[in-house]
Amino acid sequence: MISSCSLVFLSDLSNAADIITQSQSLRDDMTLVSKDGSFELGFFNPGTSKNRYLGIWFKNIPVQTVVWVANRLKPINDSSGMLMLNNSGSLVLLIHNSTTVAWSANSTNQASNPIVQLLDSGNLVVRDEKEQNPENYLWQSFDYPCDTFLPGMKLGWDLRTGLERRLSTWKSPEDPSPGELNYGIERNNYPGQIMKKGTEKYFRTGPWNGHGYSGVPNLKANSVYNYSFFSSKDEISEVKEVAAPSGMGI
């Protein structure tokens, strides 16, 4: 039993809310919607699977297109899932009448008034109610991508913490657990994009040359994507920003 996750004072969310407070929870039949209506967070069944997952998808695309999944490694076999902030301010996904943790955000930072918010970028963040600076977020889904590279998301390494942000395919349309292919930034003296099939290198670009990755001319800046690459003592990462309207991911 998880005594730190008392549900006595939890209340339901209002319609089309984008925030969960410490006194609220998101149940299986509820969703969060970003303020601009671009993204939605909730529970879903992938393909023909009967398993339930907590994920984020594009709100205004007729065919549900999931861009992030929380419990990739632990599917839920019923509708008991509930997302909430526990007493210590950690984001947890509970199942089986709140007796089992299916997933949790691995943040050790705390805030006096923590909230969960689904941003217009598709980033799910835990932050203090009065804190707007992304540098001070307690946790964010953009640090733990699945198979979709959204605008504003970083791929690569945070050298201060050792965090690696890497994309990985779904195992199948019915199973969002990590598949065989993964993609990220190789960490060496000449960092470049690298794709692996399992542990074997499948594809690698040349290093960043100031405009794009050498050897891959079609990845240079264009009217659709703007590329940025950062290499310092703190990070080795790339960011893509979309110049075209929202609703695009890689």
UniProtKB/TrEMBL annotation:
Domain of life: Eukaryota
Bulb-type lectin domain boundaries: 17-139
Keyword Signal attributed: yes
A Pfam family matched in the record: B_lectin
Matching SUPFAM superfamilies: alpha-D-mannose-specific plant lectins
InterPro entries: Bulb-type_lectin_dom (IPR001480), Bulb-type_lectin_dom_sf (IPR036426)
Keywords assigned by UniProt, alphabetized: Disulfide bond, Glycoprotein, Signal
Keyword hit for Signal: yes
Coiled coil spans: none
PANTHER family, alphabetized: BULB-TYPE LECTIN DOMAIN-CONTAINING PROTEIN, RECEPTOR-LIKE SERINE_THREONINE-PROTEIN KINASE
Name the record gives this protein: Bulb-type lectin domain-containing protein
Species whose genome carries this gene: Fagus sylvatica (Beechnut)
